[in-house]
Amino acid sequence: MSPRPFLALLALAAAMLQPASAQQALQPGGGTVRIVLNSGPGSAADAVARVLAEPLAEILGQPVVIENVAGGGGVVGTARVMQSRRDGMTILSAVSGTLIGPMLDSNLPYEIGRDLVPVSQITAAMAVFVIRAGLPATTLQDFVARAKAGREQLAFGNYGYGSASHLQGMLLARQAGLDVEPVPFNGTAQFISELLAGRLCCGFIDAGSARDFIRSGQLRPLGSTGPRRAPDLPDLPTLSEQGMTSFDPQIWQGMFLPSGTPPAIVAAVGRAMAEAVRRPAPTNLIRGVGYEPVGSSPEEFAAMIAHDAPIWRRIITETGVRIR
Question: Which helix (H) or strand (E) holds 49?
Fold first, then answer.
């Protein structure tokens, strides 16, 4: 797609796809496109959003800036986008915790579908259930048997109460019949550090963060989440292959617009995002941090969320994890 003014592109899409009332609501013109992350700088999600900015600006013919709006567990940044104009110029970059959060905490003031419209899934990742290398177990079945026999300390680490890592650990423990101690940390780095130091037995870590430690032999993987095997670990069976259920949902990063945005604008932004993800720099960086580039359409992203949401609700019900 050749560069062109962003709002002119949206207006063209609207003219082709929308009734007259919607056409009249759009105001072609210049401006800066803002991608708002509902988390702080320095994360993999931040790096992915920033590498998308340049090709997206080239595709749209408009400046694209990244804004980190952290606070309130993602609420502040999410609210910023929800309150923005429905013109496609303010986009939310969020991860799968944005889907899970309102299921855990009924006081959160947003919900995907009701307040946010899926635009494009940018990345997908599997999580890996790992144990520290000093433990003798080599398979999930062996680990469970040793744990039931009381030969393993069952301190399951995770990267935050209510995180996917926490929910997955509690789900595995429940299905395997284990009495575990969940140990939450503020993010992945501290969790991995404590695991390597031998103060934890195990936990779920995204495949990208675990990859180098698995390759070096410091962590031993026993199973992965997701509907298929992790690309970096093709010999590692999924948990579903090993008889566990409800481990299909992936970890993802995606883009959203506020609800009420005209469908033509959602479609136009989705096409631009999908094209940007497929450019060499974003693809290489995404794969470099251990994720898979996706670049889905709004319809595909919405369908994935519709598939995963009831599974996460079932996990929350089964494990009894709630915030309030």
Answer: helix 44-60
pLDDT tens string for the chain (324 positions)? Answer: 444 444 444 443 343 344 333 332 223 346 899 999 988 888 889 999 999 999 999 999 999 999 999 888 788 999 999 999 999 999 999 999 899 999 999 888 999 999 999 999 999 999 999 999 989 999 999 999 999 988 777 899 998 888 899 999 999 999 999 999 899 987 788 899 999 999 999 999 988 889 899 999 999 999 999 988 888 889 999 999 999 999 999 899 999 999 999 999 999 999 999 999 999 999 999 998 889 999 999 999 999 999 999 999 999 998 888 876
Among 24, 25, 23, 31, CA closest to 6: 31
- Token representation of residue 61: 């013919």
H helix and E strand count, the chain:
12, 11
Tokens for 41, please give them: 């700088």
Do 69 and 45 share a structural domain? yes
Do 105 and 36 reside in the same domain of the chain? yes
Kindly report the backbone phi and psi dihedral angles of residue 126, in degrees, each rounded to the nearest multiple of 5, phi listed first.
-100, 155
- From residue 269, alpha-carbon distances to 82, 279, 280, 321 in Å are 16, 16, 19, 36
Q: Tell me the residue range of the domain where 207 lies.
A: 127-224
Task: With respect to residue 242, please indicate whether it lies within any of the assigned structural domains.
Answer: no
Number of domains in the chain: 2
- Residue 265 per-residue DSSP state: H
* pTM assigned to the model: 0.83
* CA dist., res. 291 & res. 283, Å (int): 9
**Residues 158 and 169: beta-carbon distance below 8 Å:** yes
